[in-house]
Amino acid sequence: MSGSPDRRTVLRGAALAGIACFGAAGCAAGEQGSGARPSSDAPVELGPAADVPVGGAKLYAAQRLLVSQPTKGEFKCFSSVCTHMGAILNKIEKGQAVCPLHGSHFEVATGKVAQGPASSPLEEVPVKVKGGKLMAG
């Protein structure tokens, strides 16, 4: 015996390495794009309600939330997790929140899909103003 692995051993090793890489990539993608918001039974303070412009919106990256104020004093809150692949929406353009992964757009006033590939609206989250501060959850 020459000490070199036979063909079967080499192919088995290559196949196992491929499976291991595929599994690791799947786990890594799941962690990065999981989009789960921090969970809590208590409402989360986001900051001053005045920070959200009338007719506009603001992203709260740490809380993975988007808050809009369609009309003065009316606030809407949505998860900022894209419903297509779980990426976090990262900017607001012309009244729409944009997903950096595949370009889905969502209406900030309603959470509805404005442009796919996402087909489901953003998850709505209860929001209220208490002492001039936005409270979500």
Write a concise keyword list for the protein shown above.
Rieske Iron-sulfur Protein; four-stranded antiparallel β-sheet; alpha+beta; 2 domains; single chain; 11 strands; 137 residues; 1 helix
How large is the count of helical segments? 1
End-to-end distance, in Å?
Answer: 69 Å
Report the CATH topology name of the largest domain.
Rieske Iron-sulfur Protein
Strand composition percent: 25-35%
The value of Rg in angstroms is 22 Å
Unreliable runs, pLDDT <50, ≥5 residues?
A: 16-39
Strand order of the largest sheet: 2-3-4-9
Instruction: Characterize the main sheet.
Output: 4 strands, antiparallel
CATH architecture group name of the largest domain: 3-layer Sandwich
Q: Helices and strands, in N-to-C order?
A: HEEEEEEEEEEE
Estimated helix fraction: 10-25%
Number of domains: 2
Task: Give the CA-based shape.
Answer: elongated
Compute the number of strand runs. Answer: 11
The fourth-level CATH homologous superfamily of the largest domain is: Rieske [2Fe-2S] iron-sulphur domain
Computed structural class:
alpha+beta
Q: CATH class of the largest domain, anyone? A: Mainly Beta
The pLDDT mean sits at 80
Would you kindly provide a written description of the structure presented here, covering whatever features stand out?
- The chain is of the alpha+beta class and 137 residues long.
- The chain contains one helix and eleven strands; from the N terminus they run αβββββββββββ.
- The chain has one helix spanning 7-32; strands at residues 44-48, 57-60, 65-71, 74-79, 91-93, 96-98, 105-107, 113-115, 124-125, 127-130, 133-136.
- The strands form three sheets. A four-stranded antiparallel sheet has the order 2-3-4-9, with no helix packed on it.
- The longest helix has 26 residues, at 7-32.
- Residues 16-39 have low confidence and may be disordered.
